[in-house]
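Hello Y.,

Per our agreement to keep a running log of every chain we model this quarter, I'm adding this entry. I've kept the format consistent with earlier entries: sequence first, then predicted structure.
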Amino acid sequence: MSAPASPPGPTTAMVLAAGLGTRMRPLTDTRPKALVPVAGRALIDHVLDRLRDAGVTRAVVNVHHFADQMEAHLATRRDLEIVVSDERAALLDSGGGIRHAADKLGRDPIFVANIDSLWIEGAAPALETLKGAWDPAEMDILLLLVRRGHGIGFEGPQGFFRDAAGRLTHSTAPQPPTPFANVGVTILKPQVLDDQPDGAFSIVPVWHRLQAQGRLHGVAMDGYWMHVGDPAARDAAEARLREAAGAS
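Predicted structure for the entry above:
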């Protein structure tokens, strides 16, 4: 009996890789955060590999910090079409970076991925779970979530509540504790940023607007998430990945 077909999903992705990586110093003193190695592979490559395996054929990657290094590294990839979104002039934050690359992304739904989130797959591949939950009639942004206690980097109060229909409420309050965190990968309709001005802005106010409309949704992965935010987290992620590789 053949395996079930993978659900259709976006074939274009926006990879947010332009940050300064200040919390990752001294590892980012001479290179961008996206090129910090974890278990022998750069962060950006871990993310691009996941996206490729999920059916992405074209990745738009923004660059700023050590941009020349990033462009040289990205040029070595032959398995994806890589398009650079240049932010050398100024960092544009999460929302502004996507908006700046609008002409490269097209109008169909896209993946958006941070470069500091890694995970060990559970029974179902995380991005297949995300694709399977995507319903453009009901949602404008769908976030991949992880349950509290199923990862490294979900220590603070910021996170999400999720109702029975998958609609999200974002919270930064210490109580009650939020059961879900944002993994850092979403499916997004580029049109949700059409009314935003050029320049730097965060995606979070857009979440809140869509939340009020019932159009911000989330689905939980069943794997183990690792937020690689600083050198200690990098070391912890390396240990987890090597442990998982040895067990497979």
